Amino acid sequence: MIFLTIEQEFFNQYRLMYRPFINLVNEQLGKYQLYSSQWALLRLLKDKGPHTFVDIANFMYIEKPSVTRLVQKLVDLGYVETVAGRDKREKLVQLTVNGELIVQEIQAHLKPTMEQALAGVSERDIEIATQVLANICANINQ
User: Fold this and answer.
1) Computed over its alpha carbons, how large is the radius of gyration of the chain?
2) How far apart are the first and last CA of the chain?
3) Are strands 51-52 and 80-84 parallel, antiparallel or unpaired?
4) By C-alpha distance, which of 22, 14, 19 is closest to 110?
5) What Cα–Cα distance (Å) separates residue 95 from each residue in 25, 31, 33, 82?
6) CB atoms closer than 10 angstroms to residue 42
7) The predicted structure's pLDDT at residue 136
8) How far is it, in rounded angstroms, from Cα 79 to Cα 105?
9) Does pTM surpass 0.85?
10) Under-50 pLDDT residues of the chain
């Protein structure tokens, strides 16, 4: 019999949850020709406003060329646009009017999926889990 430490079991449970959850979200986003990484960028822009390519790369922990591809797909869909930043070298990515509307539509579309995933989990437990994951992320990225 194999015994896992509490730490091993925590990360095992995270792994068992993460991939199926992303697959479920991607399935839901298919209707909008999006994947979870693109949705994460749309949410960032909705929640925090326009961002530079560098800021997006840092936020998403991806390389700048990946951000360029990600943004281009969203530009092609009409969900985001690039505008001049503080100086000529800086470009900001921001939601278009259509992007604002699609974010609201997708949030409503995903709400039942999120509710189903969190069924039986108290609001307090969600708050604690959110803080725990944020702390782990901060520890990893020190």
Assistant:
1) 18
2) 36
3) unpaired
4) 22
5) 21, 19, 16, 9
6) 23
7) 94
8) 12
9) yes
10) none
